[in-house]
Amino acid sequence: MGIHTGNQLRSAGTGNDVAVVHNKLVRTDIIYWLDRKHNDPHENAFFDLMDSFVKHLNSTCYTGITGYEFHYTLYDFYKRHLDQFRSNQSRQYSMIIYLNGDWQETDGGELCIYHAGYDQRVTPIGGKSVFFKSSELEHEVLFTNKPRMSITGWLKRDVGQYGQ
């Protein structure tokens, strides 16, 4: 039984810890957190890949990544936002891996990334990945016309009380 048919996806909110707000005018996605404790062979293979990726980033780019968190996400839309929390700056990099087969332009659901001076739209075609700095790029998920699935997550670094 899949996570979607097993009713394991839960409504997502904005904010973190006790400051989570569920506002359907801001986002309507449902999520399922990935965890090695699930002992799912597909999730564990994904985590093995992420462990290798983090090791590569740390050894070549000196990123200091110490952990990560990922979830499956089924989107309708998510308004413009940054991924790094104001109260916790541990999220350093955002990563999205699209799981949608046979996606058409008319299906909508693009990721819109707001750069200085222009907007970039990324079509959520299966197998495509997006990676960016969590504190720097505002982005949103535009309205979708059919189910849009991804693995979404953040590479994290332990930060001091001043975020350094």
What does this structure look like?
The relative contact order is 0.21. Strand 6 (111-115) and strand 7 form a beta hairpin. The strands form two sheets. The chain has a six-stranded antiparallel sheet, with no helix packed on it. A four-stranded antiparallel sheet has the order 4-9-6-7, with no helix packed on it. The chain has 164 residues and is mainly β. The chain is 13% helix and 34% strand. The longest helix is centred in the first third of the chain and has 21 residues, at 41-61. It contains one helix and ten strands, in the order ββαββββββββ. It has one helix at residues 41-61; strands at residues 10-11, 30-33, 67-75, 78-81, 91-98, 111-115, 118-122, 129-133, 138-141, 148-156. The model has no long low-confidence stretch (mean pLDDT 85).
